[in-house]
Amino acid sequence: MNTSTFRFLSLTLLSLVVVGVSCTGDAPPNPCTGVQIDIVYATTPAIGASNNGSITVFNPAGDSVSYKLNNGAFQSTALFNNLAPGNYVLTVRNNRGCLDTAQISIVNYGPKYAQVKQIVAGYCGPCHLNAGNSGNKNFDTDASIVSGWDRIQVRCVNGTPTFMPQGGQLTTLDKQRISDWVMAGHRISD
Hints:
The chain is α+β, with helices and mostly antiparallel strands. The chain has two domains: 40-108, Immunoglobulin-like (Sandwich); 111-184, no CATH class. It is 32% helix and 22% strand. It contains five helices and eight strands. It has helices at residues 3-20, 111-123, 142-147, 149-158, 172-184; strands at 40-44, 46-47, 53-59, 66-69, 79-83, 86-93, 99-106, 108-109. Strands 1-3-5 form a three-stranded antiparallel sheet, with no helix packed on it. It has a three-stranded antiparallel sheet with strand order 4-6-7, with no helix packed on it.
């Protein structure tokens, strides 16, 4: 080995030692240690065979926060549109570069069920929504709407023993939407 090659290797090794180790010999602290990102989001279902579901992230928000779904690129907007039904991994990156994830599902509603769910959301609260349990019926979940299909039909369409919602009957069109869903099989997929 000649002298010039030896000097080059010595300088390279010295450079690696200086760059790779801090003055105290400790690695720099990780800015993400102990950081937990509180991810708050809402979803809208995909309806029918369309890719029309969405995810909106409410927290964290701000100019220095970015978001991505699955293995996609990070983006500055907190809205993901045109999503197919399925499972997604939402990754959020804050201003320090810290990452956190949330597992999110976009459900697939049939078009008839989507209309019934909208009717329930518009007419049945506060008696039967948001933990309301009037008449021992709560319709906060899809499962509770599906399992209560007969009660919805009897009270809202047939008016037995009295019509619901209180204060007036549904429109003829809304009654027909409920009947169509019931006749199709009263499932989420209908």
